[in-house]
Design brief:
218 residues, alpha/beta, Rossmann fold, six-stranded mixed β-sheet, 7 helices, globular, disordered C terminus, binds flavin mononucleotide
Length: 218
């Protein structure tokens, strides 16, 4: 077997990236691999468990403003150079569903930037998988109905299982390239969001709470 250990570092705002990471961990456990799922949301120093060449490393995180969330950028930038290790990148995007049609989100830089940084650090990139879990970018659309969320989740779980089996069996998967022209088109927006937009758009999940507090306060 190509790998005997899987370590996934994840960051998740509303649980999508954590669920995707857990699905991959479950497939790895079934195949008898030693696994670790590490939450990086409050990282101060980067925790690297004991590694061998047979360790596969994964990074799972949501897409924010057509990029990685700033904390993930910082984490991957500071990740040590570990030669001879394989890595995969899975970014969850904002998926929607219109009637029977699943509408994908858009990664922008969220796959290609970490792939470039990790490649420059000496890693081999074996998987680049975007995953269209339910969108939580609630400034752009109303919240999704439970039926829609369930159906998106069912679809994504099957995609992740296939992805995990392929990678863990020593294969490669570069699904991120399918949306490359669209991702390149939004690169300028990704930069604009990183330097300006996130300071007001990223807080929008809190707005309903502000509205409730305001209702009771006045
Ligand atoms: C502030 C903000 C920005 C977002 N930007 C994007 C984006 O650029 N592209 C996209 O496909 N989804 C975007 N989303 C949607 C999330 O990436 C998506 O819902 C993801 O699955 C959430 O994962 P999580 O539950 O692990 O946080 C955004 C969400 C928020 C809250």
């Amino acid at each position: 077997m190509k790998y005997n250990q899987l370590i996934i570092y994840y960051f998740s705002g509303t649980g999508n990236a954590r669920n995707a990471a857990s699905w991959i961990i479950n497939v790895a456990k079934e195949k008898g691999l030693k696994t670790q799922l590490i939450n990086i949301d409050r990282f101060e120093s980067i925790e690297i468990p004991e590694l061998t060449e047979k360790t596969l490393i994964g990074f799972c995180f949501p897409t924010h403003g057509f990029n990685m969330p700033p904390l993930v950028i910082k984490f991957i930038r500071n990740f040590p150079k570990l030669k001879n290790n394989d890595v995969f990148i899975l970014n969850t995007r904002g998926g929607l569903k219109l009637s029977k049609l699943f509408i994908p989100g858009l990664s922008g830089l969220a796959q290609f930037l970490p792939a470039l940084i990790l490649r420059l650090k000496g890693f081999r990139i074996v998987g680049m998988q975007p995953l269209d879990l339910p969108s939580n970018w609630l400034i752009l659309h109303p919240g999704l109905r439970k039926k829609v969320v369930d159906s998106i989740y069912q679809r994504c779980e099957a995609i992740v299982e296939k992805f995990a089996l392929r990678i863990l069996n020593g294969g490669k998967n570069y699904k991120a390239f399918l949306s490359l022209p669209f991702d390149i088109a939004v690169f300028p927006i990704a930069f604009g969001y990183y330097f300006f937009g996130r300071f007001f758009l990223a807080k929008t999940l809190l707005q309903p709470m502000h509205a409730i507090i305001a209702m009771y306060a006045f």
